[in-house]
Amino acid sequence: MNEYDSELVRSILKKENYEFVTDERAADIVMLNTCAIREHAHRKVYGRVHTIRHTRGKASPVMIGILGCMATNLRQELFEDRTLKIDFIAGPDSYKRLPQLIREASDEGQKSYDVTLSEFETYSDIYPDAQDRANPSTASRVNAWIAVMRGCNNFCTFCVVPYTRGRERSRSPENVVDEVRRLSAEGFKQVTLLGQNVNSYRHDDYDFAYLMDEVSKVEGIERIRFTSPHPKDFPDRFLDLMASNPKICKHIHLPLQAGNNRILDMMNRTYTKEEFLTLVEKVRAKIPNVALTTDIIVGFPTETDEEFEDTLQVVKKAQFDSAFNFKYSERQGTVASKKYPDDVPEAIKTERIMCLNEVQKEITYQKNRAHIGEIQSVLLEPYPEAKNTNQMPGRTDGGKLVILPLGPYKGGDLVKVRITDATPHALKGQPV
Ligand code: SAH
Ligand code: SF4
Questions:
Q1: Beta bridge partners of 68
Q2: What is the pLDDT of residues 357-401, one digit of tens each?
Q3: Is the dihedral of CA 313, 318, 324, 326 positive or negative?
Q4: Ligand 1 pocket at CB < 6 A
Q5: Residue range 130-369 in CATH 1.10.3720.10
Q6: What separation in Å is there between the alpha carbon of 296 and the centre of ligand 2?
Q7: Domain residues of the chain, as ranges?
Q8: 0.85 surpassed by pTM
Q9: Alpha-carbon separation of residue 403 from 138, 316, 365, 393 (angstroms)
């Protein structure tokens, strides 16, 4: 989402004749688009600002702006820290005001900020073009991000998103389809629909299934992905559409968070482990080749060894293709931070995450090995210039990385590939 938001920011500032440079040392203004989801992301930003201030020194001054979720949460703290010398701050709903904020900070030398959260801002009138896209995969017109909804109303007790990004709001289907048409005309092959809670998408009477169906009618777009959904919003209608529509990739990121019912309830996830596993079964029954991935938090307050064991059991039953596992990180302002002391010792969190990673690694490896011998359709990513290798990366429909030998093909091509080998991290293949 932040990567996409940075594309919006480039698009907004380009209209004001700002020029983007990739070399930080050549910039007059550096903006950091920040994440507040875990303490680690947060600490990195402080480190980065100090490094920039240190390398630039007094001889070559630079303006520094903080964008994104940390901006909303920590405006006061960021300005008060005199060693950082932040010039301006803009929250996720204030990017259209950036030209003005920069002007105020540079002309008048004052610190400027806007961290107001909006109930309406969806940036539906900003269309980043290929030049606004900085990631190699988006810049080379293979995949384009497109946020179809913003914000979150779920208030999972551990999560800061509802506070930093505000309430849920969706773009109209016509507006999204319009942007997808432009992307297709620019040569993009895949679009990934984004939202903090993407399958809660709703605009008037139109739901996420309707939106996906409309997007899939756009010619030239070969693949459609979406992230992140919440397990609560998977009506049969949507799963049936996924099963029958060849353009919708058969991959669902289904965040479990925990496999114990007491912890799930404390997290306010609104499902039990039984309901989650029933959903997994239903998804697999309707979409037999589906790839399922997940997010899990270990060491939520008061989680016992037995309760963590429940999470391991659910992971073994669900057989996810891969998982992002995190140690619980207390976030200021969340319900958990107010109600539940962060009482699982760091060493136990580490033990649990290592154990979970180990179990998942073996499942991932077996899942990957099961593809050996299959013919898969692979969307090639751009050749990684910087790495100077004789290999080409691509993704299966299920989103798995496949490594191919170099050949007469390029990023954006869809090629049929025989899977010849697998590791816990990737598949290897030969074009057929
Ligand atoms: N909207 C998505 C998730 C967005 S945040 C969803 O509902 O699934 C991405 C992931 O970060 C979450 O799924 C969760 O596993 C993790 N996360 C969020 N807050 C966290 C916290 N306080 N500590 C550790 N991990 C957290
Ligand atoms: Fe955070 Fe996702 Fe829960 Fe929303 S649904 S509060 S973004 S974890």
A1: 34
A2: 999 999 999 999 999 999 999 999 987 776 677 899 999 999 999
A3: negative
A4: 37-38, 158-159, 196-197, 228, 230, 255, 257, 295, 297, 326, 328-329, 331
A5: no
A6: 12
A7: 2-114, 130-369, 375-431
A8: yes
A9: 19, 27, 16, 5
